[in-house]
Amino acid sequence: MRRWIIGIVAFLVVVVAVVGAALVVANGRGTDVADAAEIPAAAPALVAAPVGDDATGDADATAAAEAVAAALAGPAADEALGQLSGVVTDVASGAELWSATPDTPLVPASVTKLTTATAALLTLPADDRVATTVLAGTTPGQVILKGDGDVTLSRTADSGFFTDAASIEDLAAQAAAALGGQPVTSIVVDNSVRGGDLFNETWSTEDIEAGNVAPLGAVMIDAGRLDSSDNYSARSETPAGDVGRALAEALGAADVPVTVSDTPVAAAEGDPLATVYSAPLGTRIRDMLLYSDNLLAEAVGREVAAARNQQQTFDGATAAVLDTLSDAGVDVSGAVLKDCSGMSADNRLTARILDGVLALAAGAPVAEDVTLTGDPAELRLLFDALPVAGADGTLADRYLSGSGAEAAAGRVRAKTGTLDGVNTLAGTVTTDSGRVLTFAFLSNGSDQEAGRAALDRLAAALREA
């Protein structure tokens, strides 16, 4: 229980700090950051007594549940929501305050990324980095570009989409120095870490041009974006080859042949010619959730699979994510994951699973037979990574004036999800009384625009609970 209370206090500090920080963050991805005057910072929350400790705790939980039920009665009945599943939990006490068919598996869309991020933080250290290496080949002038799975590479230090990304420019400078003037005659991209499993069978190739997916290369520039300044840019159909060609150009050998191999490529003996490292896992998870980047989510899922000694494939990654959550005490019964990003319409999650993930991140107590791996405090990075309503990421243009949800701007931090007929939202909200709640809402069979707006109003209503 002591860890739970300490975790709550630390979580509340994070909530207040990151909401304030979101008001001044630079606009580097084409999203408009709302005026600070329009987004009130979250107030510090009170730490409620754990439910069941005494009569006061029971009465407080009952009153809170009644307040939430009253606040959600109208918004939850909105027909624009279609089929609704949801859970609301009090962070301080761990009490479930409201639910609606919480164990019904529905299509989760991009809130799936919450499961991927949580599994990664449970499995890997927050400072874990992914290497990209240049090796000398077995024939004179041959250069091998070996990727371990970094999809966030940039062409130059200041041109990339992602935060603190490693650059091809740096990689080439190191390699050129090591080559000492030896001409480059060919470049081979070693794509073998992906096991040949590059494009999910449940995805549509039309979503490459739409900017949602691409073949999952062992190395990628800006996760395959053709325009690094645009989150929603069309993606490349040949991302691994693009990196090889960018390296050739940076080495002054733009005309040499570049090939991609899905099987391991033999290298000459000796030290690497060059190595660069991705940003730490915590930074990449923030980018993944803030911009809902599907390829970064898939790459992180493969890292979880590797850490659990499972195949680095779509099946291996999704199994690793669910196994990790199960080991941490989250009941994943009914869960079906075909990918780690939520692009698959065949995924199924319940609101209770998503709420359980958020509770873990908030420091909720786990069963006596459960031992969390890694540092539990690092799980709170999940909340730091969630977009702020009306301020940044995928919530930058929501909860604005006239939306009907503007009262919760700056109070809601949540991961969004959208597919045809699917709208989802899961995260946290601070009420006017200072209570911090987690929520998970899944809406299936809903219109994209109307359903999304109705979900925002549903979460916003919690502010008055």
UniProtKB/TrEMBL annotation:
Signal peptide extent: none
GO biological process: one example: peptidoglycan metabolic process
Domain of life: Bacteria
SUPFAM superfamilies from the UniProt entry: beta-lactamase/transpeptidase-like
Keywords: Carboxypeptidase, Hydrolase, Protease
GO MF, one annotated term: serine-type carboxypeptidase activity
Pfam families cross-referenced by the UniProt entry: Peptidase_S13
Keyword Metal-binding belongs to the record: no
Family: Belongs to the peptidase S13 family.
Name of the molecule in the record: D-alanyl-D-alanine carboxypeptidase
The organism of origin for this protein: Corynebacterium terpenotabidum Y-11
